[in-house]
Amino acid sequence: MIHKAKCLCGAIEIEATGEPNYAEYCHCNMCQKSSGSSFMVWVVFDKENVRVTKGDIKKYQSSAALARGFCENCGSNVSIHTDKCFDLPIGVLENPDDIEITQHIWSSGALKHVKLDDDLPKYEKDAPN
């Protein structure tokens, strides 16, 4: 299976091969700040299963462990990069409904208007995966 993704303006295109490791709602402050929203939904792949097929991702090192990728032209969030993983925000995927979200992380940072009333596991900080 190939998951295709692109930014808002189409300058960046990405392909991820195979099933994702997992997908999660992230309620951390950095995701809130970088998205301008209450949370982000990340689809996590091993980095060797993802390739940029068009354009160049600009990166911002938001912490010691990860860099956030974005399109320099339209500003879309397009990725998170760690030593092992390449995460895609679910909204950049061509077929986001194909992805099953499996957990919430940083639930301790969830804004009060966000109701965590689903049956998914909820981790106060990072998940143990």
Folded structure, characterized:
This protein has one helix at 29-35, and strands at 2-6, 13-17, 22-26, 40-46, 50-54, 58-61, 67-70, 77-81, 85-89, 103-105. The protein is built from one helix and ten strands. The strands form two sheets. A seven-stranded mixed beta sheet has the order 6-7-8-9-4-3-10. The chain has a three-stranded antiparallel beta sheet with strand order 1-2-5, with no helix packed on it. Strand 7 and strand 8 (77-81) form a beta hairpin. It is mainly beta. It has one domain (2-109): Metal Binding Protein, Guanine Nucleotide Exchange Factor, Chain A. The mean pLDDT is 96.
Stretches where pLDDT is under 50 for at least 5 consecutive residues are none
Helix fraction, binned, reads: under 10%
Which second-level CATH architecture applies?
A: Beta Complex
Percent of residues in β-strands: 35-45%
| 3D shape | globular
Strand order of the largest sheet: 6-7-8-9-4-3-10
H/E element string? Answer: EEEHEEEEEEE
Over the alpha carbons, how many angstroms does the gyration radius reach? 14 Å
Mean pLDDT: 96
Structural class: mainly beta
What's the CATH topology name? Metal Binding Protein, Guanine Nucleotide Exchange Factor, Chain A
Main pleated-sheet profile: 7 strands, mixed
State the helix count.
Answer: 1
The CATH class, by name, is Mainly Beta
